[in-house]
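Design a sequence for this backbone.
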């Protein structure tokens, strides 16, 4: 299967790229939401009644820049729990994009499954996977993970994926108003993590939102109050989710969800008075 899908957003290009995927019990994903609650939403489960968890990244080409949003699992991920080995770099090449082509690496947040391909190589000799890129991290996000105190286990492997970027002087720390180009800007969507952002592409009359983990699954368009147990602030994450989905529907914007079943791209639509999701084909 070809693990990339390309669409145009005005003059910008957007590529969805699959790194890997797993299946999981839907009754264990959202806090307080058991299997029975999924009965009206069978369309979002596979033939075995399981939830497909994609691990995906996105590439934007805008105004002469090539930008990678999130870097997936990386080569250090345990292949025994995955349905395929991490394949981001392979799928980039299938799309005609090399690691050396990337000008900016943008992060929605710093969880391990969004930072894994920051580096390649052996322990103690990590090399930047994208040697020509600046790695762009929100100040609030970096401050949280670098602050003293116990942190959740799903954070970045700091010595492997962040420290080498700092040592190479390729880190760019930015604020909430960050713009990667005239067409690409950050949209604060905190709650999943303190500094979580989504990214908006606006070109001509068209727009798209790369959601990060502000929206994990298409079912949350219908059930925005459902949240995964690893959201650090569920009240704020729910507020962020409602905000960005409302905004996207007003704009008729394309939605790009890295954990949505590949190809990860589609639109919010309303059916019988309820918001839902339809994939692009």
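Sequence:
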């Amino acid at each position: 299967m070809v693990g990339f899908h390309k669409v145009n957003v005005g003059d910008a290009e957007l590529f969805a790229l699959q790194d890997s995927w797993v299946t999981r019990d839907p009754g264990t994903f959202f806090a307080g939401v058991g299997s029975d609650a999924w009965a009206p939403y069978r369309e979002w489960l596979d033939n075995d009644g399981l939830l497909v968890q994609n691990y995906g990244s996105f590439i934007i080409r805008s105004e002469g820049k090539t930008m990678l949003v999130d870097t997936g699992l990386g080569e250090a991920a345990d292949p025994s729990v995955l349905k395929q080995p991490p394949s981001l770099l392979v799928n980039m090449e299938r799309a005609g994009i090399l690691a050396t082509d990337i000008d900016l690496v943008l992060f929605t947040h710093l969880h391990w499954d969004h930072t894994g391909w920051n580096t390649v190589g052996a322990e103690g000799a990590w090399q930047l996977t994208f040697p020509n890129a600046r790695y762009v991290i929100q100040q609030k996000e970096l401050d949280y993970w670098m602050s003293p105190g116990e942190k959740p286990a799903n954070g970045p492997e700091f010595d492997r994926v962040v420290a080498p970027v700092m040592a190479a002087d390729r880190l760019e720390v930015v604020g909430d108003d960050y713009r990667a180009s005239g067409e690409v800007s950050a949209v604060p969507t905190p709650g999943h993590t303190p500094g979580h952002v989504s990214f908006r592409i606006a070109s001509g009359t068209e727009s798209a939102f790369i959601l990060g983990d502000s929206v994990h699954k298409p079912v949350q368009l219908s059930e925005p109050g459902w949240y995964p147990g690893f959201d650090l602030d569920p009240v704020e994450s729910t507020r962020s989710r409602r905000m960005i989905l409302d905004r996207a529907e007003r704009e008729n914007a394309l939605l790009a969800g890295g954990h949505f079943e590949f190809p990860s791209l589609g639109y919010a639509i309303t059916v019988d008075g309820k918001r839902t999701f339809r994939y692009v084909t």
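The domain at 4-279 is CATH 3.60.15.10 (Metallo-beta-lactamase; Chain A).
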